[in-house]
Specification:
The chain has seven helices and no strands. The chain is an all-alpha fold. It is elongated and about 45 Å long. Residues about 1-5 have low confidence and may be disordered.
């Protein structure tokens, strides 16, 4: 496998790429000139696919490495749930120009931004430092495969987000 191709599949790089995309989508959702509803639709699908794929393919594997903080991994899953609840609250507002939409968008942005920052400082740094490159590449492949499967299944629909939130 070419070094560049392996780098592209590194689970840390794949997760960070999604994080930057989420931040870009937040900017679009805040912009009155942008297609805010379209940005929310893309964000919803990405947030659900990303979080579910992390929990299914990455978090459990990382907990097996002794220098990855298991409590941070568990906390990351709790923060996914909080972000998903804030996402559902925003999806349930029909008027993207309303004060309620703006308030719920900021609640979502706060929950997700906090999680991204914390995950990058703890779980992902631990993974970068303590998980061998080959294993990170395997996890990246599994993460991206599950993420794509979920995106193809319309995981960001309000019905699916409700199902995820309600467990």
């Amino acid at each position: 496998m070419a070094a560049e191709q392996q780098k592209d599949q590194d689970v840390v790089a794949a997760i960070l790429k999604d994080h930057r995309t989420m931040e870009d989508l937040f900017r679009r959702m805040r912009s009155v000139e942008a297609d805010r509803a379209g940005a929310l639709s893309k964000f919803s699908a990405l947030l659900i696919a990303h979080g579910e794929a992390e929990e299914a393919e990455v978090y459990g594997a990382l907990k097996r490495f002794k220098d990855v903080d298991n409590e941070e991994v568990e906390h990351g899953a709790e923060e996914h749930a909080e972000g998903n609840e804030a996402l559902l609250a925003l999806l349930e507002v029909s008027d993207v120009g309303s004060d309620e939409w703006d308030e719920r968008l900021e609640a979502l942005a706060k929950a997700v931004s906090h999680h991204l920052d914390e995950e990058e400082r703890t779980i992902l740094n631990d993974a970068r430092e303590n998980v061998p490159d080959e294993r990170r590449a395997e996890l990246g492949t599994a993460f991206l495969r599950e993420r794509e499967r979920l995106l193809a299944a319309d995981c960001g629909s309000i019905e699916n987000v409700r199902a995820v939130v309600r467990g």
